[in-house]
Specification:
Rossmann fold, alpha/beta, single chain, N-(1-d-carboxylethyl)-l-norvaline Dehydrogenase, domain 2, 39% helix, 199 residues
């Protein structure tokens, strides 16, 4: 299977783990769609406009739904955040078919199909946890390092909330919280996240 991929280096390397795939690296969206491939992956968070309608395209769109993007039926949203995209199971939204499952199988991934909602499931929960950790930091409950240790030891999480924030990118967390807070005040952004994300 031939895949065309436009992604940061760390994520692109993940695709070269199976002998069943031939990966072509593209440097931008224009270059990506000039390639001949079975499927296309655009895994930066700035979604290009006017996506082709005749190709299977996976996009990293955690904050924006397919409906928000007016995306055609060939577009599949995935949670392409660092720390998630490396996992075997991918949360995705869109019109599933056998060809999409074949692409996922070729790269050793399994689909967890979710509704087309902002934040999917895992990113929404992790963002909420990170936000609460920032509220605790604002209230001087403890330090970043101690909160991370407490969450890893107390809940057996692979990363503490501040480690997650660094891995994912605080700007991504901020953007998702802002989106989710429009419908649910539980996601109201900590002023400290806002300050750090915009600095």
């Amino acid at each position: 299977m031939k895949l065309a991929i436009c992604a940061p280096s760390q994520i692109y390397e993940m695709f070269n783990t199976t002998s069943e795939t031939e990966c072509i690296r593209a440097h931008d969206a224009t270059d990506l769609f000039l390639q001949e491939a079975n499927a296309y992956f655009y895994l930066y968070s700035n979604i290009p406009e006017n996506l082709p309608t005749d190709k299977i395209i996976f996009i990293n769109a955690v904050c924006h739904t397919l409906k928000d993007l007016n995306a055609p039926r060939n577009i599949i949203r995935i949670n392409g955040w660092n720390g998630f995209v490396e996992k075997e199971n991918w949360e995705l939204a869109g019109a599933m078919n056998d060809r999409i499952h074949e692409v996922l199988e070729a790269i050793g991934k399994k689909a967890i199909h979710t509704d087309d909602i902002a934040g999917f499931i895992s990113p929404g929960i992790i963002s909420l946890i990170i936000n609460e950790a920032y509220f605790a930091l604002e209230e001087k409950v403890s330090s970043k390092k101690e909160i991370d240790i407490a969450m890893k030891l107390g809940t057996n999480y692979p990363y503490g909330p501040f480690e997650w924030a660094e891995k994912i990118g605080l700007k991504n967390i901020y953007d998702l919280l802002k989106t989710l807070s429009k419908k649910d005040e539980r996601f109201t952004v900590s002023s400290l996240i806002q300050k750090e994300a915009n600095s």
